[in-house]
Amino acid sequence: MPIPIPEDTGGFVTLSSRIAYENPWTRVREDIIRRPDGGEGLYGVVERGDFVVILPLGEGPDGPTVTLVRQYRYPIRARLWELPMGMWEYRPDADPETVARGELEEETGLHAERLRHAGILYQGAGYSTQRGHVYLATGLTQGMPRPEATEADLTSHTMKLTELDRMIRDGEITCMVTLAALALIRARDWL
After folding, report:
1. Distance CA 164, CA 67 (A)
2. CA 47 to chain centroid
3. What is the pLDDT of residues 95-151, one digit of tens each?
4. Where are the beta strands (DSSP E) in 123-167?
5. Which residues contact 189 (CB under 8 A, 6 or more apart)?
6. CA 27 to chain centre
């Protein structure tokens, strides 16, 4: 499991805080703060639960394979190539490994014999509390994907690891979570 990052106020003091918006996935908090230099300001904070991102590593006849998903991302009005990822907003206390197994099966149909926790990353730490758990999935067997209704257009694609590298070089993969998770797993020499 990840080493907890100790909380550090950084010299900031929260003078007041209010919830500006809330839905089942996201809460936006507005804090009035005093900075270390004594000046006051406003800070908007997006609160989101933990998520998982999984790199499914298989073995094909020509070497290692990875499975990516492609789905439409409404906020940017584009389809992105991504590693399987997600969160269980209705089960925020679920064990991250359980969520990782569930998301992998839901989005790709893959069942992993082994999951290795590679570490954590923060998505947008300048404005958000959301933390991600990165996993490497191996010992894969194929089942049927079970996408949620909101992921009906999601497609799953298994490709050579060398193709993934080409897609990154050519700017076809722009999801920062996918790129960061891949870098973390590579830094551990797991690929």
Report:
1. 9
2. 15
3. 999 999 999 999 999 999 999 999 999 999 999 999 999 999 999 999 999 888 888
4. 131-142, 155-160
5. none
6. 18
User: What's the per-residue H, E or C state across 37-76?
Assistant: CCCEEEEEEEECCCEEEEEEEEEECCEEEEEEEEEEEHHH
Cα atoms found within 13 Å of the Cα of residue 92, Cβ hemisphere only? 10
Give 179's pLDDT tier (boundaries 50, 70, 90).
Answer: very high
Q: Is 153 helix (H, G, I), strand (E, B) or coil?
A: coil
- Do 100 and 107 form a contact (C-beta atoms < 8 A)? no
C-beta separation of 135 from 52 below 8 A: yes
Determine the Cα–Cα distance for residues 17 and 46; give it in Å rounded to an integer. 13
* Paired tokens of 7: 């909380």
Matching residue, tokens 């300001």: 41
Task: Write out the two tokens for 112.
Answer: 């992993």
Q: How many Cβ atoms are within 10 Å of 162's Cβ, its own excluded?
A: 13
In 3-state terms, what secondary structure has residue 9? Answer: coil
> What average pLDDT is seen over the chain?
94
Q: What is the pLDDT of residues 39-54, one digit of tens each?
A: 999 999 999 999 999 9
Average pLDDT of the residues in 74-102: 94
List the structure tokens of 91.
Answer: 């089960």
